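Every protein is a chain of amino acids, and every chain bends into a shape of its own. The protein below has been through that process, and both of its lines are reproduced in full.
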Amino acid sequence: MQHIYVTKSGGLDGLTLGETEPRAPDAGEVQVRVQASSLNYHDYLVAAGLLPVDDHRIPMSDGAGEVTAVGEGVTDYAVGDRVMSCFFPNWEDGGATLEGLLGVPGDHVDGFASETVTMAASAFSPMPGHMSFAEAATLPCAGLTAWRALVEETSLQEGEWVLVQGTGGVSIFAMQIARHLGCKVLATSSSEAKLQKLKELGADEVINYREEPEWGRRAAELTGGVSLVVEVGGPGTVTQSVRALRVGGAISMIGVLTGISGDVPLAEFFQRNATMSGITVGSRQHQANMTKAFEDWELRPVLDRSFQLKELTEAFRYQESGQHFGKIGLDLS
């Protein structure tokens, strides 16, 4: 089988195509023929050498494929089952724990930039029945992160406002979920073309943050204050996110695209009686809840474009450019 691995000092240009023999599953494991993966910011950090991992680590946290063999004692899956990965294979249910946050594919262990993988059965869950492999492969990180932010950690009511930032995978999923919950959506971007696409996808209001540096205040004017901000920018955007909130509103802190530390306008934050939750993907039970809802809604991810396994460096360069709208896929079929 072919796979891509990282090298210690190579960065994106050091991503290397290799070959090895698939491993038969041990007790409690399944072997999966990977059909698709998708790119996340976390994967980019690994591939670019910005998040240290073991040399020759196989990257990519997301994967979807078909079970080709099962080990002794596995009863949840059979050969031919269509499955998708779990970002946290050790987090079954309940609140986050240190132990539950270990074992991330493509980081702590080898991931899905590989034509075949052999992992614990708990590293997978059933795919939504109405989705293709390419669609399902966008769910384990971005889809589940948005789901947990809007559903598992927040009690949104019909008609409330949700603010999403940009047009990456989490933000687009958050908008789709919000619309299915009966919420209104305000979306931001610096691209007029993308703002138009956001409107076509269902955004009720849009703001060009480059033209409106005080977009948080503008958001509050347009909405009367939003109930939830899906915060992917981090320190460069959180001040405006606080200013966009209604009294009693919440921020789901998901990403740090603008840096890993910064200032929060604390006086404005507590005056709004606001809350902020750190969201790192979710549990296997969250994933099961999401899968059922997406099947009921017949929700389909927004796919930008797809690359072949050997084009993974090119795919990450495309991600770097910020041109994408929705998810970037990796086709291993």
